[in-house]
Amino acid sequence: MTAHCTALMGSMGWIMPIAMLTLLGLGIAALAKYLFTSRHPPEARS
Length: 46
Hints:
Helix content: over 70%
Transmembrane segments: 12-36
Radius of gyration: 19 Å
Structural class: mainly alpha
Number of helices: 2
Keywords: Membrane, Transmembrane, Transmembrane helix
């Protein structure tokens, strides 16, 4: 099990950090956009 995980991490060791950082960045951006738009609703609502 450990050898398999080590081999998997060795072959994809540069893909996973990039994927995780991308997903994390998108999640933070979406959360920030949601909080920003919910806290500051458009005043001119006619």
